[in-house]
Design a protein that fits this description.
Elements lengths: L12 H34 L8 E3 L2 E2 L5 H16 L2 E6 L2 E6 L6 E2 L1 H9 L7 H13 L2 E3 L3 E2 L2 H15 L7 E4 L4 E4 L4 E4 L1 H13 L6 E2 L2 E4 L9 H11 L3 E5 L2 E5 L1 H6 L1 E8 L5 E5 L2 E5 L14 E8 L1 H15 L7 E5 L2 E6 L4 E4 L1 H14 L3 E3 L2 E4 L15 E9 L5 H14 L3 E2 L4 E3 H5 L10 E6 L2 E6 L3 H15 L3 E3 L30 E3 L6 E8 L4 E8 L4 E14 L5 E9 L3 E5 L4 E12 L2 E12 L5 E7 L1
Helix pairs in contact: 2-3, 9-10, 11-13
């Protein structure tokens, strides 16, 4: 009988179970995938035209709304919020801030679109992540808005003025009795950057909750301990007066004066290294890193430094210079009995070297010394008494005269004063004489009185009326001396004074510094100007002395034409004259053109040929009418 063969590859029971489980798992996963896919598609289709759930703007829920619905809801919400005010809270105080102050405007449409666009980007994975986050956790957007940044900056700046209590550094207090240290004080400051960010956050989140602003402590940079050395230095400087000396003069600067020289500043220093160590024979140290300013609590060590105020010292030195400085005085000479003699001796001048004096005072105070010898420079005059023998002045070259009858006393005074400042003037060979440089400024501070002048078409009192009488007289002396005229201006109108003893046109007007009278010494030697005033008889003469070189001057060909009659007389009130008094100070003058010529010859050769032309406008008579009671 044949045996039955065994079945090869028989499946065990455990393998069957595994097979069934595998098939079941695959089926389950396939069904789960289909379920998830179907759910996602359904979720997508359900929110195809709606904002996904969980999306908010501030506390406003926009999920499940269409774009149009979200836009309307946002528009309503921002319109209401825009009209409100934020409440700012600080130090237990509240302050309202109307949003209109910041010119806040919202873009509800753009905000709604931003909310609607969540999960609808080009990247599917990011879209799924956004949808999942909005579904599980929610997504909060900020409202899109704009505001006036300058208004916000001003709001925070003004708020800081109310909040800030700046720290006070330790300082030096100087009293009559002693030098003290005023203690430092910790302050508080509004955190401006944070304040601006919190206000913006409240605006963007449409939040009506009070905005809590942070106030941070502000530490002083300099403490009492860091001011001890400054106090010692201050006490040392003020412990004794500082004496400034020049020859037999002395100026003692006491405590009050020296105190004004002092100022104080903070000098930051790096804090001592925390610790040092060595590795492999090399030394290392860890230094403290400190902020540039400790107002926010940074770790800064600063000492109070004593400074010497150079401007204050210079101010004191300048005042002392007024007592020391003395301009040199040139010797003045006169021609008398055929020779030149001294009638005003020269004087040596001196000038304090202010820059060097400030440096010496500063060094002396720093070194703790008590005396300073002031540096003074000597200024020698240009012309000394001894120069008289070098001038070679031998004879009269020319003379000029003028009359000024009817001048008021102040005008007569000014004529004498200006003439005296020219009297004795020396002009070197080749030098140009300037009347302005010789007599200087013409005003009350230089001794002149007010007299009547013509200014802007009116007669009025002003300093220096009468100085033109002097320039006119000197002009005539220069003409007759045969010297070249460099600069001369005629008057704007015919002045009666200058025609009392001379034809019209022989005058010279000056108005410093814009118009001057100048002439040149083209002779081989010095020339000397000598003034001869006869104020009692209203007369002035200038004589010019030098060395005669053979020149002769001829002035002539006087011409007057194109005359225009004067306008009606002008009567002007004068509070200095008694009431009922009328005084004429200007005489009517015809307008005209005037000219004359001058020829200067030497040995038959013309060396100077001049023609002087003047155009005068018509001028009215002027009367002063007294108004003084």
């Amino acid at each position: 009988m044949k045996e039955k063969s065994k079945v090869k590859g028989k499946i065990s029971k455990s393998e069957v179970i595994k097979f069934i489980f595998k098939k079941t798992a695959i089926t389950f996963l396939a069904l789960l995938f289909i379920l998830i896919s179907t759910s996602l598609i359904a979720y997508h289709l359900a929110y195809l035209n709606k904002i996904y759930p969980g999306v908010k703007v501030g506390n406003l829920h926009l999920g499940n709304l269409t774009l149009e619905e979200a836009n309307r809801l946002l528009q309503s919400q921002v319109s209401s919020f825009q009209a409100q005010s934020l409440t700012l809270s600080y130090n237990g105080k509240n302050k309202t801030l109307p949003l209109s102050t910041l010119e806040v405007t919202y873009d509800a449409s753009a905000t709604a679109q931003l909310s609607f666009n969540l999960g609808r980007g080009k990247n599917p994975l990011l879209n799924f992540e956004d949808k999942w986050q909005s579904f599980t956790q929610g997504v909060n957007f900020e409202a899109i808005y704009s505001l006036n940044d300058e208004a916000l900056e001003k709001t925070v700046r003004d708020l800081a003025k109310e909040v800030d209590n700046p720290p006070v550094d330790a300082s030096i207090k100087i009293s009559v009795e002693k030098v003290e240290i005023s203690p430092a004080k910790t302050g508080v400051l509004l955190d401006r950057s944070e304040a601006k960010e919190k206000i913006k956050q409240a605006i963007s989140s449409l939040s009506s909750t009070a905005v809590s602003l942070s106030v941070r402590p502000a530490n002083p940079i300099t403490t009492e301990d860091n001011a001890l050395k400054a106090r010692e230095e201050t006490e040392k400087i003020l412990s004794h007066p500082l004496t400034l000396r020049y020859q037999d003069k002395a100026w003692a600067l006491g405590k009050e004066q020296l105190s004004s020289f002092l100022s104080f500043s903070t000098q930051k220093e790096e804090i001592t290294p925390a610790f040092r160590f060595s590795i492999g024979g090399k030394n290392f140290e860890i230094k403290s890193i400190y902020a540039a300013d400790s107002r926010g609590g940074g770790d800064v060590k600063a000492i109070l430094k004593v400074n010497l105020n150079q401007e204050k010292i210079k101010e004191t030195v300048s005042n002392i210079a007024k007592e020391i400085n003395q301009e040199p005085v040139d010797a003045k000479f006169k021609f008398e009995n055929g020779k030149v003699t001294v009638f005003v001796p020269h004087k040596v001048g001196r000038e304090l070297d202010e820059t060097a004096a400030v440096e010496k005072i500063t060094t002396t105070l720093e070194d703790g010394q008590e005396e300073v010898d002031l540096p003074v420079n000597i200024k020698n005059p240009t012309v000394t008494n001894e120069n008289v023998s070098n001038f070679n002045i031998k004879e009269l070259l020319g003379r000029g005269t003028s009359k000024f009858a009817h001048s008021i006393p102040s005008r007569v005074y000014n004529v004498g004063l200006a003439a005296s400042r020219i009297n004795g003037a020396l002009i070197a060979p080749g030098e140009t004489f300037s009347m302005y440089k010789t007599i200087g400024e013409v005003d009350g501070s230089t001794g002149y009185q007010e007299a009547y002048v013509i200014s802007n078409g009116r007669t009025k009192l002003d300093y220096g009326g009468g100085v033109c009488q002097v320039s006119t007289t000197l002009f005539r002396a220069v003409l007759n001396s045969g010297l070249p005229v460099v600069e001369r201006y005629p008057h704007a109108y015919r002045v009666g004074y200058y025609e009392q003893d001379m034809s019209p046109g022989v005058d010279a007007s000056v108005f410093f510094p814009s118009s001057d009278f100048k002439f040149k010494n083209d002779t081989p030697g010095y020339i000397l100007i000598q003034a001869i005033p006869d104020l009692a008889n209203y007369s002035l003469t200038f004589e010019i002395y030098g060395t005669f070189d053979g020149r002769k001057s001829e002035v002539g060909n006087f011409w007057l034409g194109n005359q225009v009659p004067p306008p009606p007389a002008l009567y002007q009130d004068d509070p200095t004259l008694p009431k009922g008094t009328t005084k004429q100070i200007d005489w009517a003058a015809w307008g005209a053109d005037a000219s004359f010529t001058r020829a200067v010859t030497r040995n038959g050769e013309v060396i100077i040929s001049d023609k002087f032309f003047s155009r005068y406008k018509a001028w009215q008579a002027v009367y002063l009418v007294g108004t003084k009671e």
